[in-house]
Amino acid sequence: MNKNQKPGSIVGKVIIYVALIVFAITIIVPVAWVFMASFKRNSEFIGAGTNPWALPKQLFVQNFQVAFQDAQMGEYLLNTVLVTVLALALILVIALPAAYVLSRFRFKGNKILNTVFMAGLFINVNYIVVPIFLMLSDWDKALGFQLFLDNRIVLALVYASCHLPFTIYLLSSYFRTLPKGFEEAAYIDGCGYFKTMVKIMIPMAKPSIITVLLFNFLTFWNEYIIAYTLMDEHGTLAMGLQNLMAVERTATNYGIMYAGLVIVMLPVLIFYICVQKRLTEGMTLGGLKG
């Protein structure tokens, strides 16, 4: 033990570590249990002497087969992937130039635009989903056929539009921390504003970009209210999971129900593992440079 450390600081660190370990256990144990339960037969959940914490007697992968075929989770998964990828692409195309201009240039109306985007952070999209539905419904009635409702491209546009303020706010905060010397050197070498942004500034902001991508990915992937309101046949994974849970809970097919949960969780866990290091950099570099 370091002699210079005070007893109070040691106790504080112990309390923090204990709290972090308890918090980690409360997250890891339920997730691990869901993965374990997804491979169990239904008889291992029901009946006398069954232990919910016991390991599966064998890996019953038919639960996933039933979830994909009978509940059409594969179709819901494809719809969710298409909507999420398109929404993320739209956000990057729109938010990156907007955040760069708002954070690095001064022009008439700059403060007003920043204030408008800041105000957008306080608007909960769930409160305006009904007006959005009525607006799209009116457009379909005017056309005489359904185009805007139950459209994956329109759903992606709604997702991207609703999360632009959050994305622009985070990216602008990071762009402000970058030194101006890099831009000045690029201008001297003959680069224009657009080329400087694409070749110099955006690569430097990669940790922050990955951070907003992850946050938006989690939101789009798990979103239910907007998708349930605007979609029908081309529903998302959250809608499919809700339908699967309702049917299998009634039929007491718990293994299939947990298999559906794993189908939803697994892509998120894989994506997080892939970008965890960049995510940590994006959440800390801004504070270190500020």
From TrEMBL:
Keyword Aminoacyl-tRNA synthetase: no
Record keywords, A-Z: Cell membrane, Membrane, Transmembrane, Transmembrane helix, Transport
Gene3D superfamilies xref list: MetI-like
Subcellular location: Cell membrane
GO cellular component: plasma membrane
Transmembrane helix keyword on record: yes
Ranges that cross the membrane: 14-35, 76-100, 112-133, 153-171, 209-231, 251-275
Its membrane topology: Multi-pass membrane protein
BP GO terms, sorted: transmembrane transport
ABC transmembrane type-1 domain mapped to chain residues: 77-275
InterPro entries given in the database record: BP-dep_ABC_trans_perm (IPR050901), MetI-like (IPR000515), MetI-like_sf (IPR035906)
SUPFAM superfamilies named in the record: MetI-like
Similarity remark: Belongs to the binding-protein-dependent transport system permease family.
Protein name: Carbohydrate ABC transporter permease
